[in-house]
Specification:
UDP-N-acetylmuramoyl-L-alanine:D-glutamate ligase, nine-stranded mixed sheet, four-stranded mixed sheet, 13 strands
Length: 317
C-alpha cells in the first residue's frame, strides 16, 4: 500500500504509563509480588497519533497535558516521533494523566487511569484547533476525554467532510449527536456490548435468540453509526454495515503484551482509510498493525513501523 502522505488528526488523551509484570492478577485484598516495572508514555490519543505517524501519515494531536515533568516528556516524545503537537495545551492547574497497567504472564492486562489534565480539555479548545481537523482526511477520537471535546471534534470533522473514526474506549454511553456523525465505530467485544446495553442486563440477540457479535454490531448501527468494526483480538475483526457483514482474520503471532493492540489497530485503520483503501483492506491493515503490536512489551515501543505492517499484510492475505 503506497503512502500518499495522508493527514490524520487525533483528539484524545496523553497518560504516563506505569507498567508492572505479574505472575497473575491479584484477587481483591491480595498482594502479588511483581516482576518487571517500566515507566513510559501512553494515553490512547497519543498512542494512536504516534501509531499513525510511524505508518506514514502526517499526524496531528489535539490534547492537554500538565505543566510538569511528564508533560515535558510528552512534548519531547511527539517531537521525536514526528507528531504535530501544536494544538496541545499545557495546564498549570492539573497533573499530566497517569495510567497504571498490570500485565500477567499470558500477556493480558488490567488498566486504571488518573486522567488529570485530560479531564480539562474543553470543547472550546477543540474548536480553536478546528483547522487541524478540517484539513485532515481522517479524525480519530477516543473516550479518555469528556463528551464535550469528543462532540466538538466529530462535529467539526463531519462538517468538513473528514472521515470520523471513534474508538469507544473506555466504553460509555454516547449522545446521538456524536454517534450519528461517526463513520467508523471500533469497539472491542466488551465495549460493543456496553454501548449496546448488554452489560446492563438488556439482551441483544439475533433471529435465533443468541447474543452474537453481529447482533450487537447491528444494534450499534441502529444508533446511527455508519460502520461498526468490532475487534476480536486474535480472532481479527468483524466489519458490519448496512451493506453486510465481513469477517477479517488476524495474522497469527506470538503475543507478549496485548496492551497496545487496540491503539495500533486504530492508528493503522485511520491511516488506511485516509489513504483511500476500501473497508476490508483498511481493516486488514489495522489487524496487521494490532498483531505486530502484541509481539513486543510496552505500548509505544511496540507500535509498528510502516514496512513491517506492509510486509505482514502481504504475507497474510
Amino acid at each position: 500500500m503506497a503512502s500518499t502522505d495522508p493527514v490524520v488528526a487525533v483528539v484524545g488523551s496523553y497518560n504516563v504509563g506505569l507498567t508492572m509484570q505479574v505472575p497473575a492478577f491479584p484477587a481483591p485484598g491480595e498482594t502479588v509480588v511483581g516482576r518487571e516495572f517500566a515507566e513510559g508514555p501512553g494515553g490512547k490519543g497519543s498512542n494512536q497519533a504516534i501509531a499513525a505517524a510511524r505508518l506514514g501519515a502526517e499526524s496531528r494531536f489535539v490534547g492537554r497535558v500538565g505543566a510538569d515533568r511528564y508533560g515535558d516528556d510528552a512534548v519531547a516524545l511527539w517531537d521525536d516521533e514526528g507528531v504535530d503537537a501544536d494544538a496541545v495545551d499545557r495546564d498549570d492547574a492539573a497533573h499530566t494523566g497517569v495510567g497504571f497497567v498490570v500485565v500477567d504472564e499470558d500477556g493480558e492486562n488490567e488498566i486504571t487511569v488518573a486522567p488529570g489534565a485530560n479531564d480539562r480539555l474543553s470543547a472550546a479548545e477543540v474548536r480553536d484547533s478546528a483547522a487541524a481537523i478540517e484539513t485532515a482526511e481522517c479524525l480519530l477520537v477516543q473516550l479518555e476525554i469528556g463528551d464535550g471535546p469528543v462532540r466538538a471534534a466529530v462535529e467539526t470533522a463531519a462538517a468538513a467532510g473528514t472521515t470520523v473514526v471513534c474508538n469507544p474506549a473506555p466504553a460509555r454511553e454516547l449522545p446521538p449527536a456524536v454517534l450519528e456523525r461517526v463513520d467508523y465505530l471500533t469497539p472491542n467485544e466488551h465495549e460493543a456490548r456496553t454501548l449496546a446495553g448488554v452489560a446492563g442486563g438488556d439482551d441483544v440477540t439475533d433471529s435465533d435468540g443468541e447474543t452474537t457479535d453481529e447482533a450487537v454490531a447491528r444494534e450499534l448501527l441502529g444508533l446511527g453509526v455508519g460502520t461498526v468494526v468490532l475487534t476480536r483480538g486474535s480472532a481479527g475483526a468483524l466489519l458490519v454495515s448496512d451493506d453486510g457483514v465481513d469477517g477479517v482474520e488476524a495474522p497469527s503471532v506470538d503475543a507478549v503484551d496485548t496492551t497496545g493492540a487496540g491503539d495500533a489497530f486504530n492508528g493503522a485503520l485511520a491511516v488506511a482509510l485516509a489513504e483511500g483503501l476500501d473497508d476490508r483492506a483498511a481493516v486488514r491493515f489495522g489487524c496487521a498493525g494490532g498483531a505486530l503490536a502484541v509481539t513486543a512489551s510496552e505500548v509505544v515501543p511496540g507500535l509498528p513501523e510502516r514496512g513491517a505492517v506492509d510486509d505482514l499484510v502481504a504475507d497474510s492475505w
